[in-house]
Each structure stands twice: as C-alpha cells, then as structure tokens.
Amino acid sequence: MADDDIEALAGEYVLGTLDADERRAAEARLRADATFRTAVADWERRLQPLADTADAMSPSAAVFGRIMAAIDAAPQAAATGGNVVELRRSVRRWRITTVLMGAAAAVLAAVVVLDRTGPAPQSQFVAVLTAEGAKPAFVATVDTVKGTIAVRRVATEAPPDKSYELWSIEPNAAPKSLGVLEQASLSRPLPVAPTGKATLAVSLEPKGGSPTGAPTGPVVFSGALVATEGP
Amino acid sequence: MSEGRQRELVVLLAEVAAGDRAAFSRLYERTAAKLFSSIRRILASEALAEDAVQDAYVRIWRRAGDFDASIASPIAWMTTIARHTAIDIVRRGAERISAAGDEIDAELADRLADPRGSGERAVAGSRLKACLDQLDQDRRGMVVLAYCQGWSREELAKRFGRPVATVKTILRRSLIALKDCLGG
C-alpha cells in the first residue's frame, strides 16, 4: 500500500467516515501494523484542535457509577488478571521494539528456510509470529495453491482459561479466523485463502475461541506473510 | 494541554492498563468533560450522549494497554475512542442531528483561530485553521462535519450532492492536502 493510501486510511479512520467493516479492519490493523499505528496517532494529533473547539460540558454525576457497574458486569475483558496483563505488557514492549527495529518479523522470516517444492511461484508463504523481536512464538506456512496452512507453536502456551486464535488480516478487510490453536501444532485446509499481502495475528480469546467471530482479546503475536520464493 | 498534564494522563493510562481503579477514577475526573463535549456535538440527546460516554470509558478501561505513549497523545487517543463510540450510536440509526447539521458550523472555523487555552494548543489550532482555509469550501465542510458531527460518507454525499465514492475520494485528497500543509 502506498504511503498516501495508508495516510488516507488512517485519516479517515480518525475522521470517522469509514463504514463499520472498514473500521473493524482498521482496528485489527492497528494491532498488527506499527506504521499504521503511528499514522493514526499523527492524525489524532493533527485534528485534535477541532475537538478543542467544542464547548465544555460535563456528564451527570451518575455516569461514573454506571461505568464501573458495566466494567464489573463484564470482567473477562477487563485489564485485570496476571497473565493477560503480562501478555499486554509484552505486546507493548514488542511495539516499542518494533518502532526501534523496524520490520523485525520480516527479518526473522528471512532465516526460515523451506523446501522449494511448490510448482507455482508465489504460492508458498511463511509468517513468523512474534511478540518481542527476538523470540518467535508461532511459525506458520501457507500454501495458497494447495489451500493448506501449518502452524507450529514454538513458545508460550495460552493461559489455562484462554485460547489462542489465529486470524488472517487483509488490508482494508475484517480479520478472518483461521482457527483456534489448541495444540502445539496444527495442519489443516485453509478456511479462507490469504493473499500474499495478509498479516497473520494471534489473539487471546476466551477458552474455545472468539464468541463473536471477530477478535475480542488482545493481539499477542503477529507477523506478515513472506513469499518463500522471489517474484 | 500542558506537557505536565499530558504526562499525568500517560501515567494514569499505564496504571489503568494494570487494572488500577483509583487511577481510572482520576482519569475520568480529568477527561470526562472534554470527551463529553466532543460526544455532545455528535449526539444532541443528553441521554444518548451519556450512554456514549459510558461506553467510551468502558472501552478506555479495556484498551488502556493498547495506548502507546511513544507515538500517541493521551487525550487525542481518548477523543478518538469517544467520537467513534458516539458515531456508532448515530449509525445504529438512534438519532441524527439533522437540523443543526444542515448548515456548516461556520463559527467553528473561527473558534479554531481563537481556542480557549494557551500556548501550544492555540498555535496548533491556528495552523489547522490556516490549512483548512486552503481547502475549498465544500471540502472544508466535509472534513469539519465528519470530524465534529460524525457525518458518514452517505450523509455527506446527500448534503453536497455528490456520489458516495466521490465523497470518499474528496475526503482522502483533502486529508492528504491537510497533512502536506501542516508539514507532514
């Protein structure tokens, strides 16, 4: 995606003119794409003076109590619980690392060597899903001609009451589930075929996977697909 | 917003990310009026605006761990969550401020040049105004109505008599022009 396209998408995201599907896709991308995250933060800052023109008005005193009640009513999504907090922290560290190191995932992917058995070029892809630059957590290999994906977990089990779920995120589209990762490795037909432009992401979901069909928990690992052969 | 105040909000958000309720209460006290005023421009009904501010702070509680102080401004990050929450309610068809929205709030552009507040904030406001002024009137209107009143592409298309796809193109070109004008 050209720079102006990323900027325009980030600008429209902040402006609020994306439709519901586009907004969801942008939110998923925010979790997976550091360049996009920076573009959005820059747009928030650029347009903030417009928000500053609004007349100050306070909500009624009862609102804060209602907020706390709503938080207590859905505790599973709250930012409490050691493991989730730990994972969130590691995501944040990873973000900072990513800012510093650039395309860490791409560099890691480059050291993964696969058999070049595919008949068609550009049909085999690999993604290394990381939380912190140095430590791959999942390695995924995708064959878009055979329509298969193999995923191997190389670190970190999910907390006992949670499941990892794998998502394919295409530019400008909502994340599509590629399955719940209960075992150390998974090999299966692809429910949806990612293009070479997809990012794979693993989110932390309630046991058994997302109840809604969209990611509900934090994205803890992600990595872009990289073709195993040159163009 | 002063630098000290910004830093305070950054610290509060980090504490909220770790599940600190006292920090969340302080964060609410410091920011609720600000977020509520952005929401009220999108939702005229006080009851719906209070629903929106409630949803917005629940989202802030849950997403505080996503806030990244190395790239984002805390109040601007929270403002996006608040505006998007209000826009979600509007788009569910609950309410639309049609009367007020029929005319572009010309006063708004003037306020940009004269923000209550001082120093850095006033400078940022007048720079944005200068750059908005370089867009032609319809383009400026589209950007301002979308940001301040939460208008969708479809609503803008109707108001400005252009196809929806054209509105999207115009919005994106206007944003890129604004970015260039503001110096990237």
Descriptive report:
The complex is a heterodimer of chains A (231) and B (184). With 231 residues, chain A is α+β, with helices and mostly antiparallel strands. Helix content of chain A is 35%, strand content 26%. Chain A folds into 2 domains: 3-51, no CATH class; 75-227, no CATH class. Chain A has helices at residues 3-15, 20-32, 34-51, 63-73, 82-101, 104-110, and strands spanning 124-132, 135-143, 148-153, 162-169, 176-181, 185-189, 199-206, 219-224, 226-227. In chain A, the strands form 2 sheets. Chain A has a 5-stranded antiparallel β-sheet with strand order 6-3-2-1-9. The longest helix of chain A has 20 residues, at 82-101. Chain B has 184 residues and is mainly alpha-helical. Helices cover 76% and strands 0% of the residues of chain B. Chain B has 10 helices and no strands. The two termini of chain B are 21 Å apart. Residues 98-103 of chain B have low confidence and may be disordered. The chains are: A alpha+beta (231), B mainly alpha (184). Chains A and B meet through helix 1, helix 2, helix 3, helix 4 and helix 5 of A and helix 2, helix 3, helix 4, helix 6 and helix 7 of B.
Overall number of strands of chain B: 0
Tell me about the biggest sheet of chain A?
A: 5 strands, antiparallel
Q: What amount of the residues of chain A lies in strands?
A: 25-35%
Number of helices of chain A: 6
Residue-averaged pLDDT of chain A: 75
- Quaternary structure: heterodimer
Number of H- or I-type helical stretches of chain B: 10
| Cα-to-Cα separation, first versus last residue of chain A | 18 Å
Helix content of chain A: 25-40%
What is the percent of helical residues of chain B? Answer: over 70%
The chain-level mean pLDDT of chain B equals: 87
Q: Please state the overall shape of chain B, judged from the principal axes of the Cα atoms.
A: globular
CATH architecture of the largest domain in chain B: Orthogonal Bundle
Give the amount of beta strand of chain B, in percent.
under 5%
Content-based structural category of chain A? alpha+beta
Low-confidence stretches of chain A: 76-121
**How many discrete structural domains of chain A?**
2
Numbering strands along the chain, what is their spatial order in the largest sheet of chain A? 6-3-2-1-9
Rg of chain B (C-alpha, Å): 17 Å
Number of folding domains of chain B? 2
